[in-house]
């Protein structure tokens, strides 16, 4: 089974007051997520603001997260929870450097969005993933950021990548406007027998009952992991989640949807007792009114951690 399976938590990269990555707090987040029962951790993606860090900082984050995951309690004595690293960059050269560094830092897999200053066409997207496959022998999750990259992965292109490269998973945005229902089923049908994990991101859609998927990719799961583990387990068992928990997560994702994405997670972290400065610019801190709305929801959290 691909290691991109189940509940995948994407921690923010906590920052010290001087703006440097706070590795102790990151380790605390990673251990907390693993102890709560998540199936994997992904650092330096959107929630982790990976593109805002230089190579040395990225290396420190990767090694810190891998060390924390290995040291954390593994439920049932199971294998250590995998740690994946997002390696998107603005050139193939930069992506390859980040992929090699992630491998050398102990990553179990890579997450890659086909990002470029100029939107890529399909030939260029495929060439990028082929270059990564030739350079680094790690499984890759295709991070489909169709709104931001102006390239939307098709089921046929995913099948081609699964056959010819190291792509073993896709992270598809459940919240993309006009996404047809049955998208997960279409991606699964195109890749049947190829061992691809079809996963979703988009917390509001996930909480409100998006199509069943092999994986959930979520930044919130690193901040409120017990809550997400309970939701995922209920859904996986075909059961109704606890109504209070579902209502609270609905309210939380609703408030966050009105706040700038990474800044909102940093503000939420602070309210949950996870110390961090706001993300680096050009992101801006969350305005006080929005912090107050978040605080009100946090105060109603039904699951104690
Ligand atoms: N898209 C997020 C994960 C989902 O919340 C990320 O890349 O960090």
Automatic annotation (TrEMBL):
Species of provenance: Cellulosimicrobium composti
Lineage, broadest ranks: Bacteria, Bacillati, Actinomycetota, Actinomycetes, Micrococcales
Keywords assigned: Lyase
InterPro entries: Aldolase_TIM (IPR013785), DapA-like (IPR002220)
Protein name: Dihydrodipicolinate synthase family protein
Family: Belongs to the DapA family.
SMART domains assigned: DHDPS
Pfam family, any one: DHDPS
């Amino acid at each position: 089974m691909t290691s991109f399976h189940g509940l995948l938590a994407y921690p923010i990269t906590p920052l010290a007051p001087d703006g440097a990555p706070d590795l102790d707090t990151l380790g605390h987040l990673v251990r907390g997520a693993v102890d709560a029962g998540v199936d994997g951790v992904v650092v330096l993606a959107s929630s982790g603001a990976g593109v805002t860090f230089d190579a040395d900082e990225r290396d420190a984050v990767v090694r810190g997260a891998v060390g924390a995951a290995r040291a954390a309690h593994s439920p049932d004595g199971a294998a250590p929870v995998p740690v994946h690293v997002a390696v998107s960059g603005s050139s193939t050269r930069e992506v390859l450097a980040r992929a090699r560094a992630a491998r050398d830092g102990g990553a179990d897999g890579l997450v890659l969005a086909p990002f470029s200053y100029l939107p890529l066409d399909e030939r260029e997207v495929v060439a990028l993933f082929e270059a990564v496959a030739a350079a680094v022998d790690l499984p890759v999750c295709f991070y489909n950021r169709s709104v931001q990259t102006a390239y939307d992965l098709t089921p046929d292109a995913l099948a081609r990548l699964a056959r010819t490269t190291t792509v073993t998973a896709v992270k598809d945005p459940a919240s993309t406007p006009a996404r047809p229902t049955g998208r997960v089923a279409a991606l699964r049908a195109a890749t049947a027998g190829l061992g691809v994990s079809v996963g979703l991101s988009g917390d509001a859609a996930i909480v409100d009952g998006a199509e069943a998927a092999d994986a959930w990719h979520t930044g919130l799961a690193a901040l409120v992991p017990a809550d997400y583990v309970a939701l995922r387990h209920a859904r996986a068992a075909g059961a109704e989640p606890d109504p209070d928990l579902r209502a609270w997560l609905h309210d939380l994702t609703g408030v966050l949807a009105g706040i700038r994405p990474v800044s909102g997670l940093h503000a939420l972290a602070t309210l949950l007792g996870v110390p961090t400065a706001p993300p680096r610019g050009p992101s801006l801190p969350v305005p006080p009114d929005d912090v107050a709305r978040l605080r009100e929801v946090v105060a109603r959290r039904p699951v104690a951690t």
